[in-house]
Amino acid sequence: MIRGIAGVAGIHVRATDHRIQKGFTLLELMVVVVIIGLLAALVVPRYFNTVSKSKATIARAQMDSLEKALEEYRLDVGSLPTREQGLQVLLVAPAGGARWRGPYLKKDVPSDPWGNPYLYRPGDGGHDIEIISLGSDGQPGGAGDAKDIYLSGTD
């Protein structure tokens, strides 16, 4: 019988237990968490700033649309709606509105992007208008998201 080379030469081969270790060390995990935190600190404020700017842009576009509807109303009726009539007169004919040819909006009067109603203020003489969004806080004044957005239209 022939013995293996290891047995012939008198060398004893011992089976060693070399297990492959899988997983990450605590230090590696902490480094990854710190990197993710730094990236989030850079990206998240920019994202919210972009969202804030886009809401202001949407508000201005809606206000332009309301101004155009008010101008159409004025051309038909001869004057702008009163403060009491408000923007709803763009959808529903006022009492005694024989020259009203609306509705002047395809949908309901929109709320601003923060869910607040737009303020409508007709000027003296029935020709100047002011449409206002009170921003994210719904209160006059403010800064950042809460800053008021004004649209003033005149002849």
UniProtKB/TrEMBL annotation:
It is a single-pass membrane protein. Keywords: Cell inner membrane, Cell membrane, Membrane, Methylation, Transmembrane, Transmembrane helix. PROSITE patterns: PROKAR_NTER_METHYL. The keyword Membrane applies. Residues 134-155 are annotated as: Disordered. Its main location: membrane. It is found in: Cell inner membrane. The chain crosses the membrane at residues 24-48. It comes from the Bacteria. GO terms for cellular component: plasma membrane; type II protein secretion system complex. InterPro entries: Bac_GSPG_pilin, N_methyl_site, Pilin-like, T2SS_protein-GspG_C, Type2_sec_GspG. GO terms for biological process: protein secretion by the type II secretion system. Residues 47-150 form the Type II secretion system protein GspG C-terminal domain. Belongs to the GSP G family. This is Type II secretion system core protein G. The gene is gspG.
